[in-house]
Amino acid sequence: MRAANRAVSPLLWVPSGYFTMALCYVMLTSVTAIMFKNLGMGNGQAAQYSSMLILAYTIKPLFAPFVEMYRTKKFFVLCAQAIIGLGFAGIALAMALPGYMVVLLPMFGLLSLVGATQDIACDGVYVTSLDQRSQSLYCGIQSLSWNIGPIVASGGLVYLSGKLHTEWFHHDPGTPGPAWMDAWRIVFFIVAAITILMAVWHARFMPDGARAANTPASIGDAAGILGDALTTFFQKRGVWRMIAFAFLFRLSIGFLEKIGPFFMVDPPASGGLGLSNELLGIIYGTYGLAAVLLGSLLGGLFVARRGLRATLFLLCCAVNIPNVTFLIMSIYQPSSLLAISIGVVVEKFFFGFGAVGFMIYLMQQLAPGKYATTHYAFGTGLMGLCGLVTGVISGHLQQRLGYVSYFVFVMVATIPSFLACWFAPFYQEEGPAQQQPAPTPLAGAAHE
Protein backbone atom coordinates (compact mmCIF):
# COMPACT_ATOMS: atom_id res chain seq x y z
CA MET A 1 0.00 0.00 0.00
CA ARG A 2 2.67 2.50 1.03
CA ALA A 3 4.74 1.70 -2.09
CA ALA A 4 1.76 2.21 -4.36
CA ASN A 5 0.96 5.51 -2.72
CA ARG A 6 4.45 6.82 -3.46
CA ALA A 7 3.82 6.47 -7.19
CA VAL A 8 1.49 9.50 -7.01
CA SER A 9 3.01 12.79 -5.96
CA PRO A 10 1.35 14.27 -2.85
CA LEU A 11 1.32 17.58 -4.73
CA LEU A 12 -1.49 16.12 -6.83
CA TRP A 13 -3.84 15.54 -3.88
CA VAL A 14 -2.68 17.29 -0.68
CA PRO A 15 -3.37 20.87 -1.89
CA SER A 16 -6.70 19.98 -3.50
CA GLY A 17 -7.81 17.83 -0.57
CA TYR A 18 -7.24 20.46 2.09
CA PHE A 19 -8.61 23.27 -0.08
CA THR A 20 -11.85 21.32 -0.53
CA MET A 21 -12.10 20.68 3.22
CA ALA A 22 -11.69 24.37 3.98
CA LEU A 23 -14.10 25.50 1.26
CA CYS A 24 -16.87 23.35 2.73
CA TYR A 25 -16.16 24.38 6.32
CA VAL A 26 -16.00 28.12 5.65
CA MET A 27 -19.08 28.09 3.41
CA LEU A 28 -21.10 26.34 6.13
CA THR A 29 -19.91 28.12 9.27
CA SER A 30 -18.99 31.63 8.09
CA VAL A 31 -20.40 32.50 4.66
CA THR A 32 -23.88 31.26 5.61
CA ALA A 33 -23.99 33.96 8.30
CA ILE A 34 -23.57 36.65 5.62
CA MET A 35 -26.18 34.95 3.43
CA PHE A 36 -28.69 34.77 6.31
CA LYS A 37 -28.02 38.45 6.99
CA ASN A 38 -28.58 39.33 3.33
CA LEU A 39 -31.86 37.42 3.31
CA GLY A 40 -33.19 39.59 6.13
CA MET A 41 -32.38 37.72 9.34
CA GLY A 42 -31.43 39.70 12.41
CA ASN A 43 -27.95 39.37 13.84
CA GLY A 44 -29.16 37.01 16.56
CA GLN A 45 -30.67 34.41 14.24
CA ALA A 46 -27.97 34.69 11.57
CA ALA A 47 -25.15 34.15 14.08
CA GLN A 48 -27.04 31.39 15.90
CA TYR A 49 -27.89 29.31 12.84
CA SER A 50 -24.43 29.52 11.28
CA SER A 51 -22.71 28.78 14.61
CA MET A 52 -24.79 25.65 15.20
CA LEU A 53 -23.24 24.17 12.07
CA ILE A 54 -19.91 24.03 13.94
CA LEU A 55 -21.30 21.24 16.16
CA ALA A 56 -20.50 18.38 13.77
CA TYR A 57 -16.90 19.56 13.44
CA THR A 58 -16.65 19.85 17.23
CA ILE A 59 -17.75 16.28 17.94
CA LYS A 60 -15.98 14.59 15.02
CA PRO A 61 -13.39 12.89 17.31
CA LEU A 62 -16.33 10.92 18.76
CA PHE A 63 -17.21 9.24 15.45
CA ALA A 64 -13.73 9.11 13.89
CA PRO A 65 -13.05 5.50 15.07
CA PHE A 66 -16.19 4.30 13.29
CA VAL A 67 -15.03 5.82 9.96
CA GLU A 68 -11.87 3.70 10.28
CA MET A 69 -13.88 0.48 10.23
CA TYR A 70 -15.21 0.40 6.68
CA ARG A 71 -13.71 0.40 3.19
CA THR A 72 -10.83 2.84 2.56
CA LYS A 73 -10.27 6.41 3.67
CA LYS A 74 -10.29 7.50 0.04
CA PHE A 75 -13.75 5.94 -0.35
CA PHE A 76 -15.09 8.17 2.43
CA VAL A 77 -13.40 11.25 0.93
CA LEU A 78 -14.98 10.64 -2.48
CA CYS A 79 -18.43 9.85 -1.06
CA ALA A 80 -18.34 12.91 1.18
CA GLN A 81 -17.29 15.24 -1.63
CA ALA A 82 -19.94 13.86 -3.98
CA ILE A 83 -22.65 14.31 -1.31
CA ILE A 84 -21.39 17.82 -0.48
CA GLY A 85 -21.45 18.81 -4.15
CA LEU A 86 -24.94 17.44 -4.68
CA GLY A 87 -26.02 18.96 -1.37
CA PHE A 88 -24.95 22.48 -2.30
CA ALA A 89 -26.69 22.10 -5.67
CA GLY A 90 -29.79 20.92 -3.81
CA ILE A 91 -29.61 23.97 -1.53
CA ALA A 92 -29.45 26.24 -4.58
CA LEU A 93 -32.57 24.56 -6.00
CA ALA A 94 -34.38 24.57 -2.64
CA MET A 95 -33.99 28.35 -2.37
CA ALA A 96 -36.67 28.65 -5.04
CA LEU A 97 -39.24 26.88 -2.83
CA PRO A 98 -41.78 28.73 -0.68
CA GLY A 99 -40.72 28.56 2.95
CA TYR A 100 -37.23 27.63 1.78
CA MET A 101 -35.60 28.19 5.19
CA VAL A 102 -37.41 25.16 6.66
CA VAL A 103 -35.61 23.03 4.04
CA LEU A 104 -32.28 24.86 4.04
CA LEU A 105 -31.41 24.52 7.72
CA PRO A 106 -31.66 20.68 7.87
CA MET A 107 -29.72 20.45 4.61
CA PHE A 108 -26.94 22.65 6.00
CA GLY A 109 -26.89 20.49 9.15
CA LEU A 110 -26.55 17.29 7.11
CA LEU A 111 -23.76 18.81 5.03
CA SER A 112 -21.85 19.77 8.18
CA LEU A 113 -21.89 16.11 9.28
CA VAL A 114 -20.68 15.02 5.86
CA GLY A 115 -18.04 17.77 5.85
CA ALA A 116 -16.72 16.62 9.23
CA THR A 117 -16.51 13.06 7.87
CA GLN A 118 -14.57 14.37 4.87
CA ASP A 119 -12.10 15.99 7.28
CA ILE A 120 -11.58 12.74 9.21
CA ALA A 121 -11.03 10.70 6.06
CA CYS A 122 -8.76 13.23 4.32
CA ASP A 123 -6.62 13.59 7.45
CA GLY A 124 -6.46 9.80 7.56
CA VAL A 125 -5.20 9.61 3.98
CA TYR A 126 -2.54 12.22 4.76
CA VAL A 127 -1.29 10.55 7.94
CA THR A 128 -1.27 6.95 6.64
CA SER A 129 -0.09 7.54 3.07
CA LEU A 130 2.94 9.67 3.96
CA ASP A 131 5.83 8.75 6.19
CA GLN A 132 6.90 11.13 8.98
CA ARG A 133 9.47 12.89 6.80
CA SER A 134 6.91 13.51 4.04
CA GLN A 135 4.29 14.65 6.56
CA SER A 136 6.71 17.29 7.81
CA LEU A 137 7.73 18.22 4.26
CA TYR A 138 4.15 18.79 3.08
CA CYS A 139 2.79 20.27 6.32
CA GLY A 140 3.34 23.82 5.09
CA ILE A 141 1.64 23.06 1.77
CA GLN A 142 -1.23 21.44 3.68
CA SER A 143 -1.74 24.53 5.85
CA LEU A 144 -1.37 26.99 2.96
CA SER A 145 -3.83 25.02 0.82
CA TRP A 146 -6.37 24.97 3.64
CA ASN A 147 -6.10 28.73 3.98
CA ILE A 148 -6.86 29.24 0.30
CA GLY A 149 -10.37 28.02 1.16
CA PRO A 150 -11.28 31.12 3.18
CA ILE A 151 -9.84 33.34 0.42
CA VAL A 152 -12.17 31.74 -2.11
CA ALA A 153 -15.21 31.49 0.21
CA SER A 154 -15.11 34.53 2.51
CA GLY A 155 -13.36 36.65 -0.09
CA GLY A 156 -14.15 35.66 -3.67
CA LEU A 157 -17.62 34.17 -3.28
CA VAL A 158 -18.93 36.85 -0.90
CA TYR A 159 -17.58 39.45 -3.32
CA LEU A 160 -19.25 37.62 -6.21
CA SER A 161 -22.60 37.52 -4.40
CA GLY A 162 -22.57 41.31 -4.13
CA LYS A 163 -21.53 41.80 -7.74
CA LEU A 164 -24.24 39.46 -9.02
CA HIS A 165 -26.87 41.06 -6.82
CA THR A 166 -26.17 44.59 -7.97
CA GLU A 167 -24.75 44.36 -11.49
CA TRP A 168 -26.29 41.18 -12.90
CA PHE A 169 -29.70 41.12 -11.23
CA HIS A 170 -29.85 44.91 -10.66
CA HIS A 171 -31.12 44.71 -7.09
CA ASP A 172 -30.59 47.32 -4.38
CA PRO A 173 -27.51 46.23 -2.37
CA GLY A 174 -28.68 48.03 0.75
CA THR A 175 -32.02 46.22 1.04
CA PRO A 176 -31.99 42.76 2.66
CA GLY A 177 -34.61 40.24 1.67
CA PRO A 178 -35.51 37.40 -0.74
CA ALA A 179 -34.08 39.27 -3.75
CA TRP A 180 -30.64 38.13 -2.57
CA MET A 181 -31.55 34.50 -3.33
CA ASP A 182 -30.80 34.97 -7.04
CA ALA A 183 -27.14 35.76 -6.36
CA TRP A 184 -26.64 33.17 -3.62
CA ARG A 185 -28.13 30.38 -5.73
CA ILE A 186 -25.41 30.94 -8.31
CA VAL A 187 -22.77 30.97 -5.57
CA PHE A 188 -23.96 27.61 -4.24
CA PHE A 189 -24.03 26.11 -7.74
CA ILE A 190 -20.40 27.22 -8.14
CA VAL A 191 -19.42 25.57 -4.84
CA ALA A 192 -21.24 22.41 -5.92
CA ALA A 193 -19.36 22.34 -9.23
CA ILE A 194 -15.98 22.87 -7.54
CA THR A 195 -16.60 20.08 -5.03
CA ILE A 196 -17.75 17.60 -7.68
CA LEU A 197 -14.68 18.40 -9.80
CA MET A 198 -12.49 17.82 -6.74
CA ALA A 199 -14.14 14.43 -6.20
CA VAL A 200 -13.40 13.45 -9.80
CA TRP A 201 -9.81 14.67 -9.42
CA HIS A 202 -9.28 12.76 -6.18
CA ALA A 203 -10.78 9.60 -7.67
CA ARG A 204 -7.84 9.68 -10.07
CA PHE A 205 -4.97 10.92 -7.90
CA MET A 206 -5.67 10.41 -4.18
CA PRO A 207 -4.18 7.25 -2.64
CA ASP A 208 -6.40 4.87 -0.66
CA GLY A 209 -4.68 5.47 2.67
CA ALA A 210 -3.34 2.61 4.79
CA ARG A 211 -5.31 1.02 7.60
CA ALA A 212 -4.03 1.89 11.07
CA ALA A 213 -2.51 -0.85 13.20
CA ASN A 214 -5.27 -0.48 15.81
CA THR A 215 -8.14 -0.24 13.33
CA PRO A 216 -11.32 -1.44 15.10
CA ALA A 217 -12.86 -4.61 13.69
CA SER A 218 -16.32 -4.00 15.13
CA ILE A 219 -18.51 -1.29 16.58
CA GLY A 220 -17.68 -2.63 20.02
CA ASP A 221 -13.95 -2.29 19.34
CA ALA A 222 -14.45 1.28 18.07
CA ALA A 223 -16.43 2.19 21.16
CA GLY A 224 -13.74 0.60 23.33
CA ILE A 225 -10.96 2.63 21.70
CA LEU A 226 -12.98 5.82 22.09
CA GLY A 227 -13.71 5.01 25.73
CA ASP A 228 -10.04 4.31 26.47
CA ALA A 229 -9.03 7.55 24.76
CA LEU A 230 -11.52 9.50 26.89
CA THR A 231 -10.41 7.76 30.08
CA THR A 232 -6.71 8.41 29.51
CA PHE A 233 -7.48 12.01 28.55
CA PHE A 234 -9.11 12.77 31.89
CA GLN A 235 -6.28 10.98 33.71
CA LYS A 236 -3.74 13.53 32.48
CA ARG A 237 -2.08 15.62 35.15
CA GLY A 238 -3.62 19.11 35.32
CA VAL A 239 -6.25 18.15 32.73
CA TRP A 240 -8.92 20.56 34.00
CA ARG A 241 -6.61 23.55 33.69
CA MET A 242 -5.73 22.34 30.18
CA ILE A 243 -9.43 22.04 29.35
CA ALA A 244 -9.99 25.58 30.65
CA PHE A 245 -7.16 26.80 28.45
CA ALA A 246 -8.47 24.97 25.35
CA PHE A 247 -11.99 26.34 25.85
CA LEU A 248 -11.22 29.89 27.00
CA PHE A 249 -8.14 30.94 25.01
CA ARG A 250 -10.28 32.11 22.05
CA LEU A 251 -13.31 33.25 24.06
CA SER A 252 -13.24 36.90 22.95
CA ILE A 253 -12.53 35.84 19.35
CA GLY A 254 -15.63 33.65 19.46
CA PHE A 255 -17.74 36.63 20.45
CA LEU A 256 -16.17 38.71 17.66
CA GLU A 257 -16.12 36.16 14.84
CA LYS A 258 -19.71 36.49 13.60
CA ILE A 259 -20.41 40.03 14.82
CA GLY A 260 -17.35 41.61 13.17
CA PRO A 261 -18.65 41.03 9.61
CA PHE A 262 -22.19 42.00 10.66
CA PHE A 263 -20.82 45.28 12.02
CA MET A 264 -19.16 45.91 8.66
CA VAL A 265 -22.33 45.46 6.58
CA ASP A 266 -24.95 46.96 8.92
CA PRO A 267 -25.93 50.52 7.93
CA PRO A 268 -24.53 53.47 9.91
CA ALA A 269 -28.00 54.17 11.30
CA SER A 270 -27.81 50.78 13.06
CA GLY A 271 -24.30 51.45 14.35
CA GLY A 272 -22.46 49.64 11.54
CA LEU A 273 -20.13 50.77 8.76
CA GLY A 274 -22.44 50.16 5.78
CA LEU A 275 -20.06 48.14 3.59
CA SER A 276 -21.30 46.16 0.61
CA ASN A 277 -20.72 42.42 0.20
CA GLU A 278 -18.03 43.25 -2.37
CA LEU A 279 -16.05 45.40 0.04
CA LEU A 280 -16.56 42.92 2.87
CA GLY A 281 -15.17 40.16 0.66
CA ILE A 282 -12.11 42.22 -0.23
CA ILE A 283 -11.34 43.38 3.32
CA TYR A 284 -11.96 40.09 5.12
CA GLY A 285 -11.10 37.58 2.42
CA THR A 286 -7.91 39.20 1.12
CA TYR A 287 -6.39 41.85 3.41
CA GLY A 288 -7.60 40.19 6.60
CA LEU A 289 -6.57 36.69 5.60
CA ALA A 290 -3.16 37.85 4.34
CA ALA A 291 -2.63 39.48 7.75
CA VAL A 292 -3.57 36.21 9.51
CA LEU A 293 -1.11 34.22 7.40
CA LEU A 294 1.73 36.69 7.95
CA GLY A 295 0.99 36.85 11.66
CA SER A 296 0.94 33.04 11.90
CA LEU A 297 4.31 32.80 10.16
CA LEU A 298 5.94 35.39 12.41
CA GLY A 299 4.27 33.98 15.51
CA GLY A 300 5.64 30.53 14.75
CA LEU A 301 9.15 31.95 14.33
CA PHE A 302 8.77 33.87 17.61
CA VAL A 303 7.80 30.73 19.52
CA ALA A 304 10.53 28.65 17.85
CA ARG A 305 13.15 31.16 18.95
CA ARG A 306 12.03 31.82 22.54
CA GLY A 307 10.00 28.74 23.49
CA LEU A 308 6.31 28.41 24.32
CA ARG A 309 6.53 28.68 28.10
CA ALA A 310 8.26 32.07 27.86
CA THR A 311 5.90 33.45 25.21
CA LEU A 312 2.43 32.01 25.91
CA PHE A 313 1.10 34.97 27.90
CA LEU A 314 2.47 37.43 25.32
CA LEU A 315 0.71 35.42 22.61
CA CYS A 316 -2.53 35.63 24.59
CA CYS A 317 -2.10 39.41 24.72
CA ALA A 318 -1.56 39.46 20.96
CA VAL A 319 -4.82 37.55 20.37
CA ASN A 320 -6.99 39.61 22.69
CA ILE A 321 -5.81 43.20 23.01
CA PRO A 322 -6.20 44.21 19.31
CA ASN A 323 -9.95 43.48 19.60
CA VAL A 324 -10.13 47.07 20.82
CA THR A 325 -9.93 48.11 17.14
CA PHE A 326 -13.60 47.14 16.73
CA LEU A 327 -14.55 49.17 19.80
CA ILE A 328 -12.76 52.20 18.33
CA MET A 329 -14.42 51.72 14.92
CA SER A 330 -17.86 51.36 16.53
CA ILE A 331 -17.37 54.65 18.41
CA TYR A 332 -16.11 56.70 15.45
CA GLN A 333 -17.76 54.75 12.56
CA PRO A 334 -15.08 55.66 10.01
CA SER A 335 -16.12 55.96 6.38
CA SER A 336 -12.56 55.66 5.08
CA LEU A 337 -11.91 52.22 3.57
CA LEU A 338 -8.24 52.63 4.43
CA ALA A 339 -9.03 53.16 8.12
CA ILE A 340 -11.44 50.22 8.18
CA SER A 341 -8.94 47.96 6.40
CA ILE A 342 -6.17 48.96 8.81
CA GLY A 343 -8.39 48.12 11.78
CA VAL A 344 -9.21 44.67 10.40
CA VAL A 345 -5.60 43.97 9.39
CA VAL A 346 -4.30 44.90 12.86
CA GLU A 347 -6.82 42.63 14.58
CA LYS A 348 -6.23 39.72 12.17
CA PHE A 349 -2.43 40.01 12.18
CA PHE A 350 -2.21 39.80 15.95
CA PHE A 351 -4.80 37.03 16.02
CA GLY A 352 -2.64 35.00 13.64
CA PHE A 353 0.49 35.84 15.62
CA GLY A 354 -1.01 34.76 18.94
CA ALA A 355 -3.13 31.80 17.83
CA VAL A 356 -0.06 29.67 17.07
CA GLY A 357 0.49 29.51 20.84
CA PHE A 358 -2.84 27.73 21.24
CA MET A 359 -2.07 25.06 18.64
CA ILE A 360 1.48 24.47 19.88
CA TYR A 361 0.27 24.18 23.48
CA LEU A 362 -2.21 21.49 22.46
CA MET A 363 0.50 19.60 20.58
CA GLN A 364 3.20 19.88 23.23
CA GLN A 365 1.27 19.78 26.52
CA LEU A 366 -2.25 18.37 26.06
CA ALA A 367 -1.76 15.77 23.29
CA PRO A 368 1.33 13.69 24.26
CA GLY A 369 0.57 10.12 25.31
CA LYS A 370 -0.99 6.92 23.98
CA TYR A 371 -3.65 8.69 21.91
CA ALA A 372 -1.79 11.85 20.89
CA THR A 373 -3.78 12.56 17.72
CA THR A 374 -7.14 11.85 19.37
CA HIS A 375 -6.32 13.99 22.39
CA TYR A 376 -5.19 16.79 20.12
CA ALA A 377 -8.57 16.50 18.38
CA PHE A 378 -10.30 16.74 21.78
CA GLY A 379 -8.45 20.02 22.35
CA THR A 380 -9.48 21.47 19.00
CA GLY A 381 -12.99 20.18 19.69
CA LEU A 382 -13.09 22.27 22.86
CA MET A 383 -12.01 25.25 20.76
CA GLY A 384 -14.87 24.51 18.37
CA LEU A 385 -17.29 24.20 21.27
CA CYS A 386 -16.24 27.66 22.46
CA GLY A 387 -16.92 29.01 18.97
CA LEU A 388 -20.32 27.32 18.90
CA VAL A 389 -21.43 28.64 22.32
CA THR A 390 -20.18 32.18 21.77
CA GLY A 391 -21.53 32.28 18.22
CA VAL A 392 -25.02 31.13 19.22
CA ILE A 393 -25.42 33.89 21.84
CA SER A 394 -23.33 36.65 20.24
CA GLY A 395 -25.93 37.96 17.81
CA HIS A 396 -28.72 38.07 20.40
CA LEU A 397 -26.42 39.81 22.87
CA GLN A 398 -25.32 42.39 20.30
CA GLN A 399 -28.91 43.20 19.42
CA ARG A 400 -29.62 43.92 23.09
CA LEU A 401 -26.48 45.96 23.75
CA GLY A 402 -25.79 47.76 20.47
CA TYR A 403 -22.37 47.68 18.83
CA VAL A 404 -20.43 50.00 21.16
CA SER A 405 -21.53 48.29 24.37
CA TYR A 406 -21.12 44.88 22.77
CA PHE A 407 -17.50 45.52 21.83
CA VAL A 408 -16.90 46.73 25.40
CA PHE A 409 -18.27 43.35 26.49
CA VAL A 410 -15.86 41.62 24.08
CA MET A 411 -12.96 43.36 25.80
CA VAL A 412 -14.24 42.19 29.20
CA ALA A 413 -14.46 38.66 27.77
CA THR A 414 -10.69 38.69 27.30
CA ILE A 415 -10.20 38.37 31.08
CA PRO A 416 -11.01 34.61 31.29
CA SER A 417 -8.55 34.04 28.42
CA PHE A 418 -5.77 35.76 30.34
CA LEU A 419 -6.54 33.77 33.51
CA ALA A 420 -6.67 30.42 31.70
CA CYS A 421 -3.40 31.23 29.97
CA TRP A 422 -1.65 32.36 33.17
CA PHE A 423 -2.57 29.14 35.01
CA ALA A 424 -2.05 26.76 32.05
CA PRO A 425 0.23 23.92 33.26
CA PHE A 426 3.49 22.88 31.62
CA TYR A 427 4.36 19.28 32.43
CA GLN A 428 5.99 18.19 29.16
CA GLU A 429 9.52 19.18 28.21
CA GLU A 430 9.72 21.48 25.20
CA GLY A 431 11.93 20.36 22.36
CA PRO A 432 11.98 19.29 18.72
CA ALA A 433 12.55 15.65 19.63
CA GLN A 434 9.13 15.39 21.23
CA GLN A 435 6.71 13.26 19.24
CA GLN A 436 3.75 15.33 18.06
CA PRO A 437 0.61 14.61 16.08
CA ALA A 438 0.24 15.99 12.60
CA PRO A 439 -2.43 18.69 13.02
CA THR A 440 -5.06 19.84 10.60
CA PRO A 441 -5.76 23.60 10.36
CA LEU A 442 -9.17 22.87 11.87
CA ALA A 443 -12.16 25.11 12.11
CA GLY A 444 -10.76 28.50 12.64
CA ALA A 445 -7.46 27.40 14.09
CA ALA A 446 -5.56 29.46 11.59
CA HIS A 447 -8.29 31.81 10.45
CA GLU A 448 -11.62 33.20 11.29
Characterization of the model:
It comes from Rugamonas brunnea. It is found in: Membrane. The structure is a single chain. The protein has 448 residues and is mainly α. The chain has a single domain (2-422), classed as Growth Hormone, Chain: A, CATH 1.20.1250. Helix content is 75%, strand content 0%. It contains 20 helices and no strands. α2 (14-38) packs antiparallel against α9 (181-205), α3 runs antiparallel to α18 (372-401) and α8 runs antiparallel to α9. The longest helix has 37 residues, at 132-168.
Annotate the secondary structure layout.
Elements: H1 2-5, H2 14-38, H3 43-52, H4 55-58, H5 60-67, H6 73-94, H7 100-129, H8 132-168, H9 181-205, H10 219-234, H11 239-248, H12 251-257, H13 259-265, H14 277-306, H15 308-320, H16 324-332, H17 337-366, H18 372-401, H19 403-412, H20 414-422
Helix pairs in contact: 2-3, 2-7, 2-8, 2-9, 3-18, 5-7, 6-7, 6-9, 8-9, 8-14, 11-17, 11-18, 11-20, 12-18, 12-19, 14-15, 14-17, 15-17, 15-20, 16-17, 16-19, 17-18, 18-19
Question: What is the structure about, briefly put?
Answer:
This protein has 448 residues and is an all-alpha fold.
Q: How many beta-strand runs? A: 0
Q: Percent of residues in helical segments?
A: over 70%
Indicate the proportion of strand residues: under 5%
Mean pLDDT: 87
Shape type? globular
Biggest sheet descriptor: none
Order of helices and strands: HHHHHHHHHHHHHHHHHHHH
Task: Tell me which CATH architecture applies here.
Answer: Up-down Bundle
- How many separate helices? 20
Calculate Rg over CA atoms.
Answer: 21 Å
First and last CA, distance: 37 Å
| CATH topology (fold) name | Growth Hormone, Chain: A
